[in-house]
Amino acid sequence: MQSLTDIAPYVALGAATVDVVLIIVAVVLGLRVRRLRRAQQAVLGVHGERDIVAHAEHLAEQVRNLRVAVEALERRIEMHKSELDHAFTSRAVLHYDAFRDIGGEQSASIALLDRHRSGVVVSSIHSRDYARLYVKELREGVPDRALSPEEERVVAAAIEPRPKTPADPQPPSIDPSD
């Protein structure tokens, strides 16, 4: 039995060495866990009560919800675009003397057209005794009734592209002497 007593100090020394190594490993792992938790707090915030996987799932759900919302908005934008295709985007006004005996350019024509050149031409003809109002419809540039020369000029002016300038917010007018 003497051989066991001779080995005991060596076994104790080996066990102590293993203990020290395990303590060092535990400290290193503890530091790594602490560093990982700090990193999670940077992602989750101080009050994050879920782990990083749950947080990633939550973010993925939010991204899915965002995609659904963006698709719904895209559908609405397309719907509004089709509605705006028929909004009056081109206009022009022409003042003129319809009769030789009346001056002051009291008569006027206005063209209101959409991007497909559909819309209306409204003319107000003034004389000394009366005023008349005429409304003519255009569909893709073709009038439902014959247009007067002034109405043709106001339609051409409405169709003609003009650069937008901040100094001229009024609809374009046509010089009747043209």
Please characterize this protein's 3D structure.
This protein is of the alpha+beta class. The radius of gyration is 42 Å and the shape is rod-shaped.
Q: Secondary structure elements and their pairing?
A:
Blueprint: H1 2-44, H2 52-84, E1 90-96, E2 107-113, E3 119-126, E4 131-139, E5 142-143, H3 149-159, E6 173-174
Parallel strand pairs: 1-6
Antiparallel strand pairs: 1-2, 2-3, 3-4, 4-5
Q: Which key phrases capture this entry?
A:
rod-shaped; 3 helices; single chain; six-stranded mixed beta sheet; alpha+beta; 2 domains; 6 strands; 178 residues
The best one-word shape is rod-shaped
β-strand amount: 15-25%
Structural class: alpha+beta
Q: Ends: how far apart?
A: 131 Å
Order of helices and strands: HHEEEEEHE
Q: What is the C-alpha radius of gyration, as a whole number of Å? A: 42 Å
Largest sheet: 6 strands, mixed
Mean pLDDT: 83
Q: Could you tell me the number of beta strands?
A: 6
Task: Tally the structural domains.
Answer: 2
Query: Which percent bin holds the helix content?
Result: 40-55%
Number of helices: 3
Strand order of the largest sheet: 5-4-3-2-1-6
Poorly predicted spans: none
Summarize the structure.
The protein has 178 residues and is α+β, with helices and mostly antiparallel strands.
